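QA checklist item 7 of 12: single-chain prediction sanity check.
[x] sequence parsed
[x] length recorded as 122
[x] structure emitted
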Amino acid sequence: MKLFKFPAIASDAITAGNYIWVDVSTLTEINALADTCVLKGSGWTITMTVDGDDAAEKLLNTSALAAYFAPILLEYNGTAVHRHESQKVYDVWSGLDYLGIVAATGIVKTTGTGPLVTLAVS
């Protein structure tokens, strides 16, 4: 098991004290859609909703999130768990505030509020 900890995000802000924990070794899909980036695994789905000034900017943001997460999560995907990896929790965006997350992922919104509207699990 490779447990990753994501901060919950709602209304363009990190929801203090709320986290999403998923086993990324079961990751099966990363999808960049019109205004959502979806990460799917066995028994979990993380949906990140983005904003933008138009459809092109939204798709640019979902594509940027998918490109950001693919190399990070795929490194820990599958069943080849090493003992030291299986005993660690990976804290996604550790120590970053909302603006730090936006900068790290490269997502943008030309005008108005932030580009990452929500990050939730279902």
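[x] summary fact logged: The first strand starts at residue 3 and ends at 10.
[ ] second reviewer sign-off
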